[in-house]
Amino acid sequence: MFVSLLKRIGLTFSLNDPQWGRGSQNNNQNGKKPNEGPPDLDQLWREFNQRVNRMLGKKGEGGGSGDGGFSPDVAGAKKGIAIIVAVLVFIWIVSGFFIVQEGQTGVITTFGKYSHSTMAGFNWRWPSPIQGHEIVNVSQVRTVEVGYRSNVKNKQPKEALMLTDDENIIDIQFAVQYKLKNAAEWLYNNRDQEEMIRQVAETAIREIVGRSKMDFVLYEGREKVALDVGSLMQQVLERYKAGVQITNVTMQGVQPPEQVQAAFDDAVKAGQDKERQKNEGQAYANDVIPKARGEASRLLQESEAYKARVVASSEGNAARFKQVLVEYQKAPVVTRDRMYLETMQQIFSNTTKLMIDVKNGNNMIYLPLDKLLSQSDVTSGLKNAPVPASNVPVGQTPEQVPTVEMRFNKDGRSRDVRDSRDREVR
Questions:
Q1: Domain residue spans in the chain?
Q2: 314-343 per-position pLDDT tens digit
Q3: Do the strands 142-146 and 169-180 form a parallel or antiparallel pair, or are they unpaired?
């Protein structure tokens, strides 16, 4: 193959030679035209050898033109070889330069083993086969889908279905977003990195869901489950030395299996009705109980006030009776008359009086109709007016409140006066 290549090169040289195609004297003597016939390959090969020999510094001996008429020039050959080697070494060294873009990291290996990492910019390494490099994008946010692929409708039941703590099956689809924090660990510590991340995510979600109730995962605990899954995944990946930083765990869908979705919806509606009725009952209780407590407190305070008023009035009456008793013992007749007059004064001041002149024999009676009518209106108004609750003790109707008529007999005398007179008679 190499010989054929050289022959082709020699053919090219011969074609570029301005003397090519000019036939020899024998050909001219035979009457052939100079450009007729195919070229002689042997002649081309000899011409190529001569050119290579001249490049390597060979000089001819005796001015001969044959293959055996050249002798090697050692100095020129060394110089030519040094130039070729220098060019090849330069090209080999230049092949070790490479550029790392911003947000990427270059990982250098020496004879296939990790050596070091490079930052963004223009870098150099030993060319192959001594060292090699691989550029890794560490700023890219990568995503792994668990329970579905590309679309939530494209479910993966083997990954999505899992068992909760209360022995219920639940269907979960979620996505894990992560970034690389160590390119060397990402490349060389684990095999099939994306599948490894998916398996770690599935293991973490199954552990978290297995320790939780179904209602907690479906409703109030979705955010907490996502946070716990991210934390557990990060712990596992740290033990694996995967060089990964979990940035976010997003719940795409959390629901019961499709086979029991209708029954579960009915149960959810029943639970919502239960909560609604419970809230309504609690609202009614919150409205009634404070009112009842306020009413009870008001009645209690009124009864305490009535008790204090009655006790104070009784104590005042007892103190007044003791004072009257002392005066009565000093002058019984005068005290009795005084008490009688005070009582009659009190009675007459609150009643309508009718004067009749009996001594002069005048049968004409003067009736103050205007005052009687006005007094009757006031009396009827007082009877129809509700009695204040503060004046009525607990457990007693308004009719049982002591009045002036109850304190005095029909003859208008006070009970106290009557009792004192009876005691005197005795």
A1: 2-20+39-92, 95-137, 142-256, 331-425
A2: 999 899 888 888 888 888 888 888 888 888
A3: antiparallel
